[in-house]
Specification:
This protein has 7 helices and no strands. It has 136 residues and is mostly helical. It has one domain.
Length: 136
């Protein structure tokens, strides 16, 4: 049985990718263009990963966060698309998908210099909260 959290991430992928494709910049893209577009390609790669796992905890949070954060950092996306990506990250935080220990971390201790997931989660929360204050 597939973890329901995978469906949450897949739904957010569909939402953000749909908005990107409806944007005028990407409106004339062909499937070949989509393979070459870094944002769409990143989401496509994430879809492949999610289709090959049974539990979201089988991958590190940065794997499913990366495409959404790339949208936030991109100068090519509009404010509404950036807002959708931030809303997705906020949803991941609200549902507890970020900040949980991954399968790898549960099996072995994190060596010094390893990823401080609690600190990363706190920083993401800060960014999302700041964004909500800006749009309110």
């Amino acid at each position: 049985m597939v973890d329901k959290n995978i469906y949450i991430v897949q739904g957010e992928i569909s939402t953000v990718v749909g908005a990107i494709k409806r944007n005028s910049r990407w409106n004339t893209h062909t499937p070949l263009d989509e393979e070459q577009d870094p944002l769409l390609n990143s989401f496509g790669h994430l879809k492949e990963i999610l289709n090959n796992i049974k539990e979201l905890s089988d991958v590190e949070p940065n794997v499913f966060l990366r495409p959404f954060l790339e949208v936030v950092r991109s100068e090519d996306t509009t404010g509404p698309i950036t807002g959708l990506a931030l809303t997705s990250v906020n949803k991941f935080l609200s549902y507890g998908l970020i900040g949980k220990k991954s399968a790898i971390e549960r099996q072995s201790p994190v060596p010094s210099g390893g990823p401080p997931w609690d600190l990363i989660s706190d920083k993401i929360c800060t960014v999302v909260n700041d964004w909500h204050q800006i749009i309110s």
